[in-house]
Design a protein that fits this description.
Chain A: It comes from Actinacidiphila yanglinensis. The structure holds 2 protein chains of 2 kinds. By secondary structure, chain A is an all-alpha fold. Chain A is about 75% helix and about 0% strand. Chain B is α/β, with parallel strands linked by helices. The relative contact order of chain B is 0.15. The chains are: A mainly alpha, B alpha/beta.
Chain lengths: ~550, ~300
Amino acid sequence: MTVSGPLATGSPLPPGPAAPAPGERAAPVTATFVRLKLAVLRNGVRQSRGRTVSWCIGVGLAMLYALGNGAGMIALRGSVYAPAAAVTMAAVLAIGWSVMPLFFFGGDDTLDPTRLAMLPLRPRPLIVALLTSSMIGAGPLFTLLVGTGAVVAVAHGVAGTVVAVPAVILLLAICAALSRGVAAANTRLLTSRKGRDLALLSGLIVAVGAQLVNLALSSLSSHHDLHRVTSVTSVLRWIPPASAVDAVQSVSDGAYGRAAAQLALAVIVLAVVLRWWYTTLHRLMMSPDSSTLQPAPDSTERKGSSRPPLLARLLPARWAASRTATVTERQFRYVARDPRLRASWATGLAVGLLLPLVAVVQHGSVYQCLWTAGLLGLQMYNQFGMDNSAFWTIAATITSRQDAEAELRGRALMLSAVALPYVTVVTCATALLLGKTGALPEVLGMGLAFLGALISTGAYASVRFPYTVAQDNAFGNAAPGNGSLVAFNALGGSVVASAFCLPVLGLDLALHLTGHHALLWTVLPIGAVYALALSVVGLRFTAPRMFERLPEILSAVSGP
Amino acid sequence: MGEAHGTERNTGGRPLPSYYGDRAGPAGRGAGQQPGEASGAPPALRVRGLRKRFGEQEAVAGIDLELPAGHFAGLVGPNGAGKTTTLSMVTGLLRPDEGLVEIVGRDVWSDPVGVKSRIGVLPEGLRLFERLSGRELLTFTGRLRGLPVRDVDLRATQLLDVLDLSAAQHKLVVDYSTGMRKKIGLAAALLHNPEVLFLDEPFEGVDPVSAQVIRGVLERYTATGGTVVFSSHVMELVESLCDWVAVMAAGRIVAHGPLAEVRGEAGTLQDAFLSLVGADRRSAGDLDWLGGGPK
């Protein structure tokens, strides 16, 4: 967007009738932005009854959580851990605010400064107005409640109470400025296709992040570990905005010099963040939008270089040019670049790590590692659904059963190249951490057999029961009307694959029941060979069916 | 070829065309089986009794067509006439309910090796692997078609250059404009030097500059003996490009042959087309109040 307002000149225009002095201008602009923010909030809620209800419930729960949190902080008052808790809370709030715009950019229109680029606004009054309007909403209220709880927990005496007020204001201001600064600095990214791709991963990151925090908290709950927390907070208390909160504690302790330094640090950081925001905003509103520019040939993104592809460098030329290697390579690129495939893999990898981690933390069973194999093996299901109608290019180039088998083999190889090392490492690490290295061969053997069973049944299900995947939603795994097919694929596939594992499971049980514990290691090689055989036979059985059904698969996956 | 759906319905127990033509399929369908009776060379495309039904609607209601090689052929017809369904079935992407399709004398369903290596396809409404860069898309397509790596690199470079995509070759196809997508799709369809090229609405949504580039490439291709079959709504375009035309309406071919023959007495292809599909210009008599502002 090219700007033709006063901003476009790069320096303030001489004052004239159309450009009132900044002092006169700031107040109405701020008021306008406050009204704009309120209108955006009101209209967002008003859009539909369902949305109103869900918004009210969401905000109600958040407020309850904030009140509970604040009350908890106040209850800690006088405890030896109160300062540590208050400082940690401030740090968590700041991290939350700075990360938020990256994930929920689309949710708040006022976050995108390029929308304001055509208006004759100067950055300085704009910053005041945007910062003020940032203080309105459920998020700031949440921060205010939790922050107030934090300072009340550490404020003692009159001086402490007096310092508590600017501390909360500084906390709120730094959080809001940080959030706006991050949003402005990343506007180009967040309004682009890449930004939308990134946003598709947000739900996963938040969910897994919440689980990790939960695990961390539960593992830190022992008395011993709280000492570690205290040592971490001795660093955090000097990092704004946590330093502002800790200044209240310092005043209450009578360390006025330290409090002054901490408050000063918070003010300096606020100034630096505002300056950074101002610079980015200025640049953003002055420079033309990338969509209006013709990219110079050299500046284009070099996604695929003219270098030989990775596999060509690793494998002999004859293999690298084969259909199998070509498909494997394409799938690797797709997992890295396609947001839905990436989300699916990231979920598999993250949850596949999380469940064994839970086992370690809660001293559970090493057999939890089978989840890792299961979640990664399920990626083999509905292979062509992710291609969507681009499957036609595959259908157009498959001329024989051998081509079909190479296509399936390439996909299975890509999956195995990630899943084999991942399952092995996760299983070994879990067994080591749980101190059950004796059980490692049988668990790994079972895991590999399960993976092999899922690869072979997944390939068959991909050909026999393909379904289209919603294009615009990374987590809606099927287009409307296909729900039962998805459930059938996931549940039926898991059951059948488990049934395929029975020989290995039977061997394992037999060795346990007959007391041949010394022979339990054999489960690993037998499981590995069984997995390989199952995959090879599965793909060979599926290939002619795929070749025969190419038009039907294309019809099934070419969804909206 | 976005109409490719519902292929398993309403086959009525008839043997479906299958990639294993020896086991099933419409083999031995009456006369006209010997390709190229007249000239000795097989026609680029021969279609006999091609039908496709989606539920109650008969999208393609029995098509017979024979297109000699080396022509620039246009398949024209109003929306919903069955052009996309026909092209999908002809290229093996959609299974017909019945009928025979031969390309350069080879049956699409019984000889997929012979056919798929001889045709290039640019469908409408179907995606490409958009998360690959333009060059990667060509490289992978070439390798999937079994071309030598060196040839793929050379041809990709030349096609990207001719189609004016060299500057954007490392950009992901998802970030391409409509014209650029059509051009990279055309490059992928031409990479293996097919004998017959099927293009579904290749000029739809394409800016004049890209359209001119595409046109130049296609003209060069037919000048060296290639056959192009493309569908379009734009009669002026078909008239200026094609020397052979087939007009479709309601799932049937209502006229086909050399352009001059189809145009007949009508002044333009547009007029001939409108009278063929029964949509001659209606008078706007009912709207005699329209124009000249409020009275």
